[in-house]
Design goal:
Two copies of one chain form a homodimer. Chain A is α+β, with helices and mostly antiparallel strands and about 140 residues long. Chain A folds into two domains: about 70 residues, Arc Repressor Mutant, subunit A (Orthogonal Bundle); about 60 residues, 2-Layer Sandwich (Dna Ligase, domain 1). The first copy, chain A, is built from four helices and five strands. In chain A, the strands form two sheets. In chain A, strands 4-3-5 form a three-stranded mixed beta sheet. Chain A binds a DNA duplex (25 and 25 nucleotides) through α3.
Chain lengths: ~140, ~140
DNA sequence: GTCTTTGCAAACCTTTTGCAGCTAT
DNA sequence: ATAGCTGCAAAAGGTTTGCAAAGAC
């Protein structure tokens, strides 16, 4: 699902669009739209935030990226599209990829899912404190 | 965590606050703040949306409810606070509780979580189509 | 030339907040 | 009387959208 391009949609090439996807794919920071915008703005002084939002939306519809979720009010994305768990720091919002296969289809048909529900995929997110925030906690130097 | 009441906070009794929590606890619809507001507005004509938001925030800080996540732009809550998986319909946003213990601490220390990350809890969400939306799909009568 | 993409700004929506008045203790 | 709570309206902050200009084919 979400793989079908809209019937009459034929894309034209766009440098900015390419850069947006490349950037998201090249980072492991699980960026927000604003972060992408801020990174690319120096390269493309005429870039606008709306363009970033529009392209990210299209990428998601096309399956070129996935949404990790909304963290502290901002939606965060991941260019690594194969399902995998994430860790999110409850304090600073940092997102870390977790290695593991627990997000595969396995475990989906174990019987506790009502039969009228069609499951397409699952997301697993671990919450807690990242190293930096835990250190700050121990020192009492609350950073965030 | 999120169980500690703020140092100098002593609550006074409030009928509206009680009703808000009771309502959230009594439904399995995993409501949004607005839904709660709309349900209670007839009972309390002077209820304001801000009050609902304020109380829900406090409940979450006190561990009286949990956030399931942001679905179609709205945050959704659950009065069933013990960890359990959820199913979210990608089309209509319906949320269903899933029975299972996969959200317990088990699986958290299986080695694939970097040691500097302190994991407090995890969330598992299944995505797909609920029965109604799947039916609509089959009939071609797209409802949502 | 046609259709897509973009910049810009306004609009949208959910959530938060300031403040004055009200309520519980 | 003193704190906490609420209504109201405004503000905030992220995301979407309308439209005209620019770009791709």
């Amino acid at each position: 699902m979400t793989r079908t391009a809209l019937p009459g949609r034929k894309k034209k090439h766009s440098k900015k669009r390419d850069e947006i996807l490349d950037l998201i794919r090249s980072t492991s920071s699980h960026p927000s739209a604003r972060w992408v915008y801020e990174q690319l703005k120096p390269l493309f002084p005429r870039l606008s935030l709306g363009t970033v939002y529009r392209n990210i939306r299209t990428f998601r519809e096309d399956g070129d990226l996935i949404s990790v979720g909304v963290v502290q009010g901002e939606e965060r994305f991941d260019g690594r599209v194969q399902p995998h768990p994430h860790f999110i720091c409850s304090r600073c919002g940092k997102i870390v990829d977790i290695e593991g296969s627990m997000d595969k289809t396995q475990g989906m048909s174990e019987g506790f899912i009502p039969p009228d529900l069609y499951v397409d995929h699952r997301k697993t997110v671990f919450y807690g404190l990242c190293g930096d925030c835990r250190e700050a906690d121990e020192k009492g130097t609350t950073t965030v």
